[in-house]
Design the sequence.
């Protein structure tokens, strides 16, 4: 009986980890899209091709002005929300199992701060 409980618990943890991993990957992809778009706009501005350097807010405005821009913006917001959830999972559960001393506490605190910052960006996208 005890072995069956441990196996069931391990399977449940693996399924949860797979779900969290997919969410984190989607979040990282959305973050990458935002940074790539900021880079493209900066490149265009450097060569006077119509882009302007305006940070992530300008990137979001550029996405919104495209055909199906609101849908794309929604997907980016959902992706950033996935990234936020991943950061809080890293803060609370430490999935990499790097719990050692003050350095680990500082790293987990930085995950929480990152989650809060990207959470406000994601919220700003849905509020627009």
Sequence:
């Amino acid at each position: 009986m005890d072995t069956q409980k441990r196996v069931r618990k391990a399977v449940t943890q693996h399924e949860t980890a797979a779900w969290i991993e997919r969410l984190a990957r989607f979040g990282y992809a959305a973050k990458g899209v935002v940074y790539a778009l900021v880079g493209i706009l900066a490149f265009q501005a450097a060569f006077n091709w119509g882009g302007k350097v305006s940070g992530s807010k300008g990137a979001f405005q550029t996405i919104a002005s495209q055909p199906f821009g609101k849908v794309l913006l929604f997907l980016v917001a959902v992706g950033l929300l996935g990234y936020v959830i991943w950061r809080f999972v890293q803060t609370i559960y430490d999935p990499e199992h790097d719990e050692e001393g003050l350095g680990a506490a500082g790293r987990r605190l930085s995950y929480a701060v990152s989650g809060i910052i990207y959470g406000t960006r994601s919220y700003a996208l849905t509020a627009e």
Q: What stands out?
A: The mean pLDDT is 75. Residues 45 and 51 are 4 Å apart (CA to CA). The chain has one domain: 2-127. Residues 2-127 form one domain.
